[in-house]
Amino acid sequence: MTTLLAIDASSSACSVALWQDGVVTAERCEAPRQHTQLMMPMIEALLARADVALNDLDALAYGHGPGSFTGLRIAAGTIQGLAFGLNCPVIGVSTLKALALQAHRHHHARFVLPMLDARMGELYTGAYRVMTRSDGELNIEQVLPEQVCAPGLLELPTDLREHDWLAIGSGLVMHDELPEVLRASLAQRLPEPQPDAEDMVMLAAQAFARGEAVPAVEAQPVYLRNEVAWR
Amino acid sequence: MRVLGIETSCDETGVALYDTDEGLLADALYSQIAMHAEFGGVVPELASRDHTRKLLPLIQQVMDDANVTASDIDAITYTAGPGLVGALMVGASTAHGLARAWRVPVLGVHHMEGHLLAPMLEDDAPEFPFVALLVSGGHTQLVAVRGLGEYELLGESVDDAAGEAFDKAAKMLELPYPGGPQIAKLAEEGDPKRYRFPRPMTDRPGLDFSFSGLKTHTMVTLKKAKASGEMDEQHRADIARAFEEAVVDTLVIKCRRALDKTGLKRLVVAGGVSANTRLRERLSLELTKRNARAYYPRGCFCTDNGAMIAYVGAQRLNAGEQDTGPMRAVPRWPLDSLVPPKSSGI
User: Fold this and answer.
1) Judgement on whether residues B39 and B106 belong to the same structural domain of the protein
2) Can you list the pairs that A228-231 forms with residues at least 24 positions away whose Cβ atoms lie under 8 Å?
3) Is B136 within any annotated ligand binding site?
4) Which of A78, B45, B117, B329 is least enclosed, having the fewest CB within 10 Å?
């Protein structure tokens, strides 16, 4: 039996999810700037509801970013403390990949362009091809590297432009600034959804099965934007 | 009771283990000063990122150094404030995660209370009550300390902290960051008679400080010297000397007044500026005259460190205090709002 916990604080929402051999239970709360207040109580409530003890967990997953720097650190810090204390490995999950899975699960999208508002006129983005194989297994392939970039510079891989793409995430506030050729590829736009631990725990289960869990100290955020100070 | 202490309020990651019977078992510190020096001051985002990288390795190091395992640790304490909010959250979230995993109590404590009581880590610790001068890059305060959690703020800076003034004056003198030790070094070569800078707010009663005018005075003096074309290395040293003399003199005058006002004979000096040699010399002269004594934490505990947090947390946890709610990160938190330890869950 594999039991995994995932948490995410990368956006204005706080979410937690539990994986028990394919059965997912999740909790989510829209709570800007309240992650420090909510994270641990939400974890405890979810574990209690499923009658799972912390010691039962095989690995701890967290939304590693990109997203709110502070939120990423609250999740990473909480996971570092828990995982170090439990002597349990960790799995970092991309918030963009989680959005891609969300678009696939809820909207059956196969070509997903997740984008998050990175402020300062830039996007955090990447592109994914998502398929559910005949055996029910999810196959998620990254077809554009995750990056922080100005919307006007974003390009889809040439050979995939003809497909119907679904764009998802807060970055769509910059839709009008995307290149016209890219906008032409977007069949659907979902600006509202945010990354969610529910999708992350599923991605974490795949990663765990592939043996990708790492020691607690490696529970680090992936900010993408690394120019944050100016001389 | 054996307590793990975590400090991440600014630009140093500190971790220590303190035992209420055996004293300090281990402490480790990672200073980010070199990284921030490039930018001429602390960059909060970079500070937070570094804490997230360094905290767990330091916890592991302290446990290894003290030769303890998780089951030997009875509680966890962390700096809940004041400080940079993003940096505080790193320590707070990790401490709460760890406490939950180990099933031990956890408590967020006040950073300045740590500094106040840092001399308690020494063999020759002061007894209560005493007056404390907290003097660092972030704070300049005089506090009457009557016991754990019994603090009366006697005076504080109305603008820049003394350490901040040192850093800013150093920048004007084109010295590297952090400027305090650099100014002190340059001042050694300076002629104390060339300039006399003002001693702000000493001409009127009261225990408050102001250092921003001194900064302006330094800038004006520098400009005049440059305009007159007589700026050389000696001149820079003379200005550094006049600046340092003015800050030290002001601090000494206010300490004297604080001891007069409270009638106390013990003075604790803590915070980064307390490492300044001229300040120590002048204070010990002054205190000897009045049959009083100064207490300093050892050099490495003058600046931010995990040991002082572990110490303060241990005192309060041992008295039954603990966080009953979620993690806390409180960027602004007045020292005199603290109270003696109170048991939780009542």
Assistant:
1) yes
2) A228/A69, A228/B43, A228/B45, A228/B46, A229/B39, A229/B43, A229/B45, A229/B46, A230/B39, A231/B38, A231/B39, A231/B40
3) yes
4) B45
Between CA B310 and CA B343 the distance in angstroms is 18
Given a contact cutoff of 8 angstroms between Cβ atoms, the answer to whether B324 and B308 are in contact is no
Q: For A27-69, what is each residue's pLDDT tens digit?
A: 999 989 899 999 999 999 999 999 999 999 999 999 999 999 9
Distance CA B190, CA B209 (A): 25
Phi and psi torsions of A161, nearest 5°: -65, -30
| Residue A113: pLDDT over 60 | yes
Out of B43, B55, B97, whose CB is closest to A85? B97
Q: A8 to chain B: which residues are within 8 Å by CB?
A: none
Burial class (CB in 10 A: 0-12, 13-18, 19+), A143: middle
Tokens of B87: 């940096």
Whether B56 sits inside 8 A of A217 (CB atoms) is yes
Same domain, B143 and B257: yes
Distance CA A106, CA A196 (A): 13
**Given CB atoms, is B46 within the 8 Å cutoff of chain A?**
yes
- Kindly report, residue by residue over B144-160, the tens digit of the pLDDT: 999 999 999 999 999 99
Residue B111 marked ligand-binding: yes
To which residue do tokens 């948490």 refer? A7
d(CA A22, CA B231): 75
On chain B, the residues whose CB falls within 8 A of the CB of A221 are 49, 52
Which residues, in sequence order, are CB contacts of B103 under 8 Å at separation 6+? none
For B218, the domain range is 129-296
Query: How many Å apart are CA B209 and CA A1, to the nearest integer?
Result: 64
Would you place residue A204 in the very low, low, confident or very high pLDDT band (cuts 50, 70, 90)?
very high
> How many Å is the maximal CA-CA distance in chain A?
54
Tokens of A108: 């059956």
Which stretches within B198-269 are classed as H helix? Answer: 212-227, 233-262
Question: Å from B137 to nearest chain A CA?
Answer: 20
Decide if A133 contacts A139 (C-beta within 8 A). Answer: yes
For residues B101 and B162, membership in a common domain is answered with: no
Checking DSSP bridges between strand A13-20 and strand A3-8, what pairing results, if any? Answer: antiparallel
pTM for the complete prediction?
A: 0.94
User: Each residue of B50-67: pLDDT tens digit?
Assistant: 999 999 999 999 999 999
Angle between helix B233-262 and helix B179-187 axes, rounded to 10 deg:
110
Note whether B138 and B278 are same-domain residues. yes
- Please answer whether residues B16 and B305 qualify as being in contact, where contact means their C-beta atoms are separated by less than 8 angstroms: yes
B134 among annotated binding-site residues: yes
Check whether residue B239 and residue B90 sit in a common domain. no
Predicted confidence at residue B343, as pLDDT, reads: 57
Helix, strand, or coil (residue A115): strand
